[in-house]
Amino acid sequence: MILLVDDDVMVRLLATEALVAAGFEVMEAADGEQALALFDNYAFSLVLLDVSLGGLDGFEVCRRIRENPRGGSVPVIMLTGMDDTDSIDSAYSLGATDFVTKPLNWTLLVYRVRYALRSSATLADLETSERRLAVAQRVARLGGWIWYVEEDRCERSPICLELWGDVSPSAQSVPFGLLSRVMSPERQHLREAMERAREGEPYQMSFRVQRSDGNAVTLYEQALPVRDEFGRVVRIEGVTQDVTEREQAERRMRFLAYHDSLTGLANRQMFREMLDHTIARSGRSGKRCALLYLDLDRLKRINDSFGHTLGDQILREVASRLTSSLRSADVIAREESAHEEVVARLGGDEFTVLLTELARPDDAARVAARICAELSRPLQVAHIELVVTASVGIAIFPDNGGDPETLLRHADMAMYAAKQRGRNTYEFFTEAMQLQAVERLSLEQDLARALESGQFELHYQPQVDAASGRIVSAEALLRWLHPERGMVSPVQFIPVAEETGLIGPLGEWVVLDACRHIAKWLADGVPAVPVAVNLSAHNFRSDSLLTSIAHALESTGIPPQYLHIELTESAIMQEPEEAKLTLEALKAMGLKLSIDDFGTGYSSLSTLKQYPIDLLKIDRSFVRDLPDDASSASIVEAILALARALDLGVVAEGVETAQQRDFLAGHDCGLMQGYLFSKPLPGPAFIELLYGQAPR
C-alpha cells in the first residue's frame, strides 16, 4: 500500500487514479499530521510526500518517518518543483529515497514508484508488483524507455520494442535509431522534440509509424528529462503507447457526432458549424453565399403506405442524388477542408445545401432547379417505381440575413412558399414572406385562445330535396368571430389548425356543439332536421374519435339518426383497412356516413363498395360550370349513375343558379346545397328557416 501525502486535492485525485490503474493500493493524507497518524497505524510499502504542506512540511514528515522504527526501510519519494534544487538536497539529507518534479507526469510517476519499490520490497512483493504492472502495461500497450544522455544510450522495455515492430539489435539502444520508421512530417517533429529534450524540455506527441510488417500504427510518446544535482540533464525517462485503436475509435466517434447515420451526409451539428464558418468567411471576403433548404414533398404518404424501411431507402437515394446534382465544387464537406460546400440532412425529410462564393444569386437558382429536376426523376426502390419531389427555399447572405439563425429561418420560410406555390419548385426569400410569417404566428396564437374564449360558432346550410324543395338536412359549418379581426375565413384558419394540431380539439367541439344545438331544437319543439358534420383526416384517425362521438350523443341524448358524419376521400384512403373498421364502428352507433368532395380523390368503384357509405357529395368544382361545360356534365352524370348502381344518396354542393338546379334535377340528383337556396346561417336564423317551411 502507498501513502500519498499532498494538500492539493486535484493532485491526490489524479495521482491515485494513475497508481490504482497500475495495480497499487493507495491511502491519502491531506497534511503532515494526518500522514504521521496513518503511518503509525498501517504498513505502507512506499510514501509519496509533497515538500510544501500546510503545518508540518514535507521535510519534517520525512524526518519523523525515518525516526519511526517501521520507517527506516520504506521508500520515500518527495514531490517538489522542477528547479527547486535546494529542496532536493534537503530531501536527500533527511533520508528521501528519490524525488519527482512537478508538474507531475502521471505515467512516469508509476515508473518511479516501481523503481523505488524494486530496491526495497521483498522478493514476493516485488514479483506481485511486477506481475500487476506487466499485465497493466500489456493491456494498455504501453512500454517504457530511458535515454542516458551522456552515454547516448537508450534502454527500451520489451513491450516498447514490440510497439515499433521487429527492431534490429543494433537500433534498440540508439536513441535516434527508430526515427526512420516514423512517417513524414512527424519524423522531423519528433527529432526536434528529442533534441529539445536533451536540453531539458519535456515533450508529448503522437506520430505515425510504418512497421516492418507493413502495418501502420499511431504511437503516443511522453518524455521527461531528469537532472543531476548540478542541473545537468543526465537521462530522459519516457513511455510509448500504441493508440491506434483509440485514435480509430475517436475518429469514428467524430464521424458519428458530425454525420447522419442513415445517409452519411453532414448532420445538423456539423452543418451549423459549417454555416457559422462560411458566414464569417463570406463576411470577411465580401462574397455571397446561399443556403438552400429542402423538404421532400409528401414523403409521409409513402411512409404510411409502404412503411419506414422503404422510406429510409428513399432518403438514402435522395442524399445520393443531391450530391451528384451539384456542380463539382458542391460536394459534401470534409473535416480537412474548410472551403468546400456542404449538403446536410437536418432530420426527417429536411435537407440543406450551402453554396459558397456565388458570383450572383441566380447561380443558387440554377442549382435549385437542377436539384428539383434530379430528384423528380422516377426511382426504383424495392421493385416499386416512385416519384419523389422537393420544395426548395433559398436565402442569400448577406441580402437575406447576416447570422445563421436568420438565414435558416428565412430559407425555411421560402421553402414553405415553394410548397404553397405547387411543390417541386424553388422560391427565394422575400420580405413579404417575413410579414406573412408574423401574421401566421399571430393567427396561431389567436387560434389557440379562440376555443377557450368561445369565439367559434356553427352556421348551418340547408340541404334541399330536389323534388319537393323542402329542407331535409343541413351541414354544420365552423365560423370564427374574432373580437378584432372580425369573421375569419375557414380558408385561413383551418390549415393553421391542422398544422398546429388544434384541429383535434376543434373537431371534437364541432361534433359536441352540433349535438347540443340539435338537442335544444328537439326540446323546444323546433322541426329539426339531421345535421352533417365534416371530420378532418386528423380527427378521423384519432384514437379518441369513437369515444368523443359516443360522449356527444350520450351527454346530449339526441337520437343518432340526427347526426351525419362527412369524410373526404383522402381521409378514408390513407389507411383503407383501418378506415373500414372505423366506419363500421360509426355505422354501428346508428350514424349516417357520407363522402365529401367526391370525385376529387382517388376512390375506385371496387374500394367504394367495401365501405358502409350512405351518401356521396358531388364537389362544387364539378357543379360550378354546369350545364355548359361538357366535361363537368359528364363527370356529374357518371357520379349519379354510380350512386344509383350502389344505391347511395347524392348531394350536389355549390348550387347557385337555376340552370344548375334544373340540370341536376333532370338527372335525378336527390339533394342540393348552395347559395341558390340559402347561405350558411347562424342557429337562430336557420331555425326561422325551418319554421317557415313547417306546416302551421
Question: What would you say this structure looks like, in words?
Answer:
This protein is an alpha/beta fold and 696 residues long. It folds into four domains: 1-139, Rossmann fold; 141-254, Beta-Lactamase (2-Layer Sandwich), CATH 3.30.450.20; 259-429, Alpha-Beta Plaits; 443-693, Alpha-Beta Barrel (TIM Barrel). The chain is 46% helix and 23% strand. It has 27 helices and 27 strands. The strands form five sheets. An eight-stranded mixed barrel has the order 18-19-21-22-23-24-25-26, surrounded by four helices. It has a five-stranded parallel beta sheet with strand order 2-1-3-4-5, sandwiched between helices. A hairpin with a 5-residue loop joins β8 (203-210) and β9. α12 (299-306) packs antiparallel against α13. The protein is elongated and about 125 Å long. The termini are far apart. 35% of the residues are buried. Residues 122-130 and 328-339 have low confidence and may be disordered.
Summarize the topology.
Elements: E1 2-5, H1 9-21, E2 26-29, H2 32-41, E3 46-50, H3 58-67, E4 76-81, H4 85-93, E5 98-102, H5 106-120, H6 123-140, E6 142-148, E7 153-156, H7 158-164, H8 169-172, H9 186-198, E8 203-210, E9 216-227, E10 233-242, H10 244-258, H11 268-285, E11 288-296, H12 299-306, H13 308-325, E12 342-347, E13 350-358, H14 362-375, E14 379-381, E15 384-386, E16 390-397, H15 404-420, E17 426-428, H16 431-450, E18 456-465, E19 471-482, E20 486-488, H17 490-500, H18 503-524, E21 531-534, H19 537-541, H20 545-556, E22 563-568, H21 569-573, H22 576-588, E23 592-598, H23 605-608, E24 615-618, H24 620-623, H25 630-646, E25 649-652, H26 658-666, E26 671-672, E27 681-682, H27 683-693
Parallel strand pairs: 1-2, 1-3, 3-4, 4-5, 16-17, 19-21, 21-22, 22-23, 23-24, 24-25, 25-26
Antiparallel strand pairs: 6-7, 6-10, 8-9, 9-10, 11-13, 11-16, 12-13, 14-15, 18-19, 18-26, 18-27, 19-20
